[in-house]
Design brief:
Blueprint: H1 6-11, H2 20-28, E1 29-31, E2 39-42, E3 46-50, H3 51-63, E4 73-77, H4 88-103, E5 106-108, H5 115-122, E6 129-132, E7 146-149, H6 152-159, E8 164-167, E9 170-177, H7 186-197, E10 205-210, H8 219-227, E11 236-238, H9 243-251, E12 271-276, E13 283-285, E14 293-295, H10 296-299, E15 306-310, H11 318-327, E16 337-341, H12 345-353, H13 356-362, E17 366-367, E18 387-390, E19 406-409, H14 412-421, H15 456-459, E20 483-490, H16 497-500, H17 514-517, H18 529-535, E21 542-546, H19 558-565, E22 568-573, H20 578-586, E23 590-594, H21 598-602, E24 608-611, H22 614-620, E25 623-628, E26 633-638, H23 643-651, H24 654-661
Parallel strand pairs: 3-4, 3-6, 4-5, 6-7, 9-10, 9-12, 10-11, 15-16, 15-18, 16-17, 18-19, 20-21, 21-22, 22-23
Antiparallel strand pairs: 1-2, 2-8, 13-14, 20-24, 23-26, 24-25, 25-26
Helix pairs in contact: 3-4, 3-6, 7-8, 11-13, 11-14, 23-24
Length: 662
């Protein structure tokens, strides 16, 4: 296997031993120092956008008057909004296609497949950085990339050649030992991490897996684990490269892209964990949080309405082939919907070639087009109050498209066993051995290729194709000197971006039209919020109060942009999820953290809050004095912003700040 320059570049900065994550960071560091918690700037080699977030990215590139992307590779995938129930989605697809031609991106059209595995197969390179406007971008860590999810505006900045800023993370080493028992697979590994640490257990960390247990895990097994590291709150996940990565790249005709990335002998980690794979058993995340994990054995017996295979979380060949072998010459239980969501056209052709699609269809499965589909609430919604066992990455309330849904996260083995019996079933109890599936070694079948960038001269003559549903981005004023605003909403812990800005077939078609999509903000929590927000927009705007881990989940910046359009001035929370907090900053919304969490309990909804000399206070220090005018008391909140973030908030957002800097 070819040697690597990664280690040499990193070690030249520091004679100490490095883990794999530190090597990746050191090789791409362009601003700041690698001190825990300090803001650093990283050079970004590649970007990934998908259609639910990419339309805003392209509008942002237009607003920035970018001539051509400055990254090594940027790719746009249409995988989320595939339903064409009216003109909105197809017109957005045409817009994205024209934007790719104009700005120099690769384009994968509707039906091509899910962005993360496609990008890994076609473009992913060990040792490179990848920034994606999708929170599951860290899946590319399976092949030794430093891949991070971010808001679309930050991805647009990276496409323009600017650094990506993030606080230097802790590196959490997870040693894998032993071998997985029959009927246990990679999904159970990441569910075990969630069982131990919950949905905010890895905030501020990059998870780095190592150890002898890796030998059993294919690249796509590692993809499952890296993808769902996001559900732990992790900044990213990194795997070292080895023979499995080399085989993966060689199979896709990219053997020359291999780089050797290993932790140095004696490298240290900021946190430690260990999983004995041989002791794992099938696990299930019950409704409605990825962190609500127990054993399948404990939940066995409950009736199942739907079993769902596919998504970015379980996109590998074995994730479909094993279920196909399980149902071969059998029928799924009456009343169960077994939904098959292929990863890509290539993977579908491969499964067809090997007879697996025939086995699934003969057993009663329903075959859908390649894409995210029901994972993001685009079809395949389950019946109300009925269990849906899914191999998707998250099960936040209502994300499936059904209010009061009962979505569980499971492995392909558990989903299929339950489809066969009609009840939640531990696959170890089936009267047959675990199927043995060998990953193909030959190149995948030929399929419709991605469309590459056009010549720069030709690109300059391309006009963006804008349907009537595409509206230019709203402009926002700088942060005023004095903020006086109403507490319009008060919410608890772990509020997700799906609850702030819902996805699904009813909402996402308006993703390029902020005034329209703003009508759905906080709909699952308070459907009167948009009207109340607009009513007080001219009276100083409003605040939202939140508990811990506010804004977990999707990277969609609509969850910050649409509330800002409705007059949101600040969010005061006990703690924030990383991506959403940065998205608030990017659109000029002040994110504050209660210095004393008891103050959260004391403030009533509809209270009037005032921050005198707001601009001076956040420039002067980290603490901000907030007055509760209804109770005539003051409390302290921390902004925890870097000097760069302070400037962005003061300017009214990243676009304003960038214009000022030019």
């Amino acid at each position: 296997m070819p040697g690597s320059a990664i280690s040499r570049n990193a070690i030249s900065r520091n004679a100490m031993s490095h883990n794999a994550t530190q090597k990746l960071i050191a090789a791409h560091l362009v601003e700041g120092e690698m001190k825990l918690g300090e803001e650093i700037g990283l050079r970004i080699d590649q970007t990934l956008t998908q259609d639910a977030t990419g339309t805003l990215v392209m509008l942002e590139l237009e607003a920035m008057q970018l001539d051509r992307v400055q990254t090594e590779i940027s790719a746009q995938y249409v995988d989320h909004n595939l339903l064409q129930t009216d003109n909105k989605n197809p017109e957005d697809h045409l817009f994205l296609q024209s934007a790719c031609r104009r700005f120099g991106l690769w384009y994968s059209g509707p039906g091509g497949g899910v962005s993360h595995p496609l990008h890994q197969q076609h473009f992913g390179k060990p040792g490179k950085t990848l920034l994606g406007s999708d929170s599951h971008t860290p899946a590319a860590g399976a092949i030794g990339m430093l891949a991070i999810g971010a808001g679309g505006l930050e991805v647009a900045m990276a496409m323009a050649g600017r650094p990506f800023y993030v606080n230097m993370p802790k590196v959490w080493g997870v040693r894998l030992a032993g071998e997985l028992p029959p009927w246990v697979s990679a999904k159970d590994v990441i569910l075990e991490m969630l069982r131990r640490h919950g949905v905010k257990g890895a905030v501020g960390c990059v998870l780095e897996y190592y150890g002898d247990g890796l030998r059993q895990l294919s690249v796509m097994d590692r993809h499952v684990i890296a993808n769902m590291g996001t559900e732990l709150g992790a900044t990213s996940t990194v795997f070292p490269t080895d023979e499995a990565v080399h085989r993966f790249l060689a199979r896709h005709g990219r053997e020359a892209d291999f780089e050797d990335l290993q932790a140095d002998e004696g490298a240290n980690y900021d946190r430690h964990d260990e999983i004995d794979l041989s002791r794992l058993e099938p696990l299930i995340a019950m409704p409605s949080s990825p962190g609500n994990v127990s054993t399948v054995r404990e939940q066995s017996g409950a009736d199942v309405y739907q079993a769902y295979l596919g998504s970015s979380a379980n996109p590998g060949y074995r994730d479909f082939a094993v279920p196909a072998e399980m149902v071969r010459d059998r029928r799924i239980a009456a009343g169960v919907s077994l939904d098959i969501n292929p990863t890509s056209r290539q993977s579908l052709l491969e499964l067809m070639r090997d007879g697996h699609v025939s086995s699934l269809l003969a057993a009663g499965a329903r075959l859908h087009q390649a894409g995210c589909n029901g994972c993001i609430g685009m079809g395949q919604a389950p019946a109300k109050d009925k269990l849906s066992l899914r191999t998707v990455p998250r099960n936040f309330p209502g994300r499936s498209g059904t209010d009061d849904d009962q979505v569980c996260l499971v492995s392909p083995e558990t989903a299929t066993a339950s489809a066969l019996t009609g009840r939640v079933t531990d696959p170890r109890t089936l009267d047959r051995p675990s199927p043995r599936v060998v990953e193909p070694r030959e190149p995948p079948p030929r399929a419709a290729p991605l469309v590459g960038p056009v010549d720069p001269q030709e690109a300059r003559g391309v006009e963006l194709v804008k349907g009537g549903n595409i509206v230019s981005l709203p402009e926002f004023e700088p942060l005023p000197g004095k903020v006086v605003a109403t507490v319009l909403l008060k919410v608890g812990d772990n509020i997700s971006t799906d609850e702030i800005m819902p996805a699904g077939a009813r909402v996402l078609p308006f993703r390029s039209n902020i005034p329209q999509i703003a009508q759905f903000v906080f709909g699952p929590i308070d459907d009167g919020y948009p009207d109340r927000a607009k009513a007080c927009r001219d009276e100083g705007g409003h605040f939202v109060l939140g508990g811990h881990n506010y804004g977990q989940g999707s990277s969609r910046e609509h969850a910050a942009l649409a509330p800002r359009y409705l007059g949101l001035r600040g969010v005061i929370a006990k703690s924030f999820a990383r991506i959403h907090r940065q998205n608030l900053v990017n659109f000029g919304v002040l994110p504050l953290v209660f210095e004393n969490e008891r103050d959260f309990e004391s403030i009533e909804r509809d209270a009037r809050l005032r921050i005198v000399d707001a601009r001076q206070q956040i420039q002067r220090g980290e603490s901000v004095t907030v007055e509760d005018l209804d109770r005539d008391v003051e409390f302290a909140a921390l902004h925890q912003l870097s000097p760069r973030q302070i400037d962005v908030v003061l300017a009214g957002g990243l676009i304003n700040w960038t214009r000022q800097a030019v």
